[in-house]
Amino acid sequence: MDMNMRKFTVRRFFSVYLRKKSRSKSASLSKLEDDGLVKEIDISHHVKEGFEKADPSQFELLKILGQGSYGKVFLVRKIKGSDTGQLYAMKVLKKATLKVRDRVRSKMERDILAEVNHPFIVKLHYDFGLSKEAIDHDKRAYSFCGTIEYMAPEVVNRRGHTQSADWWSFGVLMFEMLTGSLPFQGKDRKETMALILNANCHQLFRGFSFVASNLGPDQTPTETSVLAVHPIVQQLHGNNLHFTDGYEIREDIGIGAYSVCKRCVHKISEVEYAVKIIDRSKRDPSEEIEILLRYGQHPNIITLKDVYDDGKYVYLVMELMRGGELLDRILRQKCFSEREASAVLFTITKTVEYLHSQGVVHRDLKPSNILYVDETGNPESIRICDFGFAKQLRAENGLLMTPCYTANFVAPEVLKKQGYDAACDIWSLGILLYTMLAGFTPFANGPDDTPEEILARIGSGKFALTGGNWHTVSDAAKDIVSKMLHVDPHQRLTAPQVLRHPWIVNRETLSQSQLVRQDAMLVKGAMAATYFALNRSPQAPKLEPVLSSCLAQRRGMKRLTSTRL
């Protein structure tokens, strides 16, 4: 067949095909042009006959073959599948830049290539539907496509979205599977989009994995408690719905104002854990649980293993800290040097910096809440524990505040409070550092000091940097201590500034001479007295008899004068 006959055959084939397609497409195209609206275009996947379904990740971009006003053609190589190594031409259209007419024409082109099988017409081997691979430098997509109920807010508002939009859709799917309904579904598309854009932090699943049976520390399982168990907990724990079904409770480890910590053993694995049993009538542990679940994978934050909730008590199962409290170990250590103190502070501050960067403040960083997970004493085995007073910065709608979101959308007074709490964490680390270096606490001389005396010393901002170990401690150590314990929280060092301080950066040059310490019980007593003074409730004002007030005395004088008259 010569070239002219070949062209005639293809032209006749196309004219017949397009005449049939135009009848069904012309009406919808004219309506789109008349309305001037952007409509969703339904595009399904196309798979090469005899091959599996493909996606953009299975192709390697080699070079650009051509470029048009709203798309590019790439030379690509298949890197996965049975046709690995095969070269293809891939046409990539930027849907956000297509006008209505162009979108419809692109859809028609795709349909034609999918249906036409002619030896002299280019073949469509793969089509990825609505998939998007970020080829642009900003790595953001701007397409408005997909099922509206599953779209993320950033897709709906068309300000650009990344791969995180797929996780939103996955969350919607999970919500639908668990509840049988969609989280955002209005009577029409407009209302559904409004619900998505105004999404509030839904309380339905808040704590859903923490709910267990009605079982207190001294109670036994009952049939009524089993009926109250949330069905999701049955999926999480199987038939072991009660804490005592899965664990054996052993001796006390520590006792606090709102909770008791005990050693426990998992019945099947015989692994030892620590369980913190919290009285819900005294404190709501929801914030602590969420923070531990969210950030407990950090190597220096205690790991939360399991949670049970019976409505009266909450059981937090955590890794067992076999190495004991940080201060206990340091005071027992035969040789503790300035270099070791710097390594300890670096590990703790690095963890605190991570928490602060995530909008979390601990607010109770006393030495008893910093423990070793094992007996090695290595700084890497340090764990920050007890997040009972910790807070996560949140927006008004309950959503977590990431660092990039915070500056633009949080009220100044909220940021100021968050900064104050972060400064309190640094102040607590300053107390710890002072005690490690000096061998005694900065504001309390012993356990018998009254809270009023301790608070007065703290308020003055004065502490000794002379005498004792301070004669042998480096000037850099004195500098960082004084800046971490500055009485003005706005002038206090931040966690990143502490990590950049020369005493931390150049710790390999610090002295390894042994630091002298006071009696361990005396130091621990003074430390406990310091935090008791800080955490105790303000003393109620002492009320005197009403007749002793100046107003009552003046009125008494007036009555006396009027009687005499």
From TrEMBL:
SUPFAM superfamilies xref list: Protein kinase-like (PK-like) (SSF56112)
Signal peptide: none
Name of a matching Pfam family: Pkinase
Cited PROSITE patterns: PROTEIN_KINASE_ATP, PROTEIN_KINASE_DOM, PROTEIN_KINASE_ST
Stored CDD domains: STKc_RSK_C
Keywords assigned: ATP-binding, Kinase, Nucleotide-binding, Transferase
Coiled-coil region: none
Residues annotated as binding ATP: 65-73, 91, 253-261, 276
Gene Ontology annotations of biological process type: intracellular signal transduction
Stretches assigned to the Protein kinase domain: 1-233, 247-504
S-adenosyl-L-methionine recorded as keyword: no
Recorded GO MF terms: ATP binding; magnesium ion binding; protein serine/threonine kinase activity
Protein name (Swiss-Prot/TrEMBL): KS6A2 kinase
Species of the source: Polypterus senegalus
Taxon lineage: Eukaryota, Metazoa, Chordata, Craniata, Vertebrata
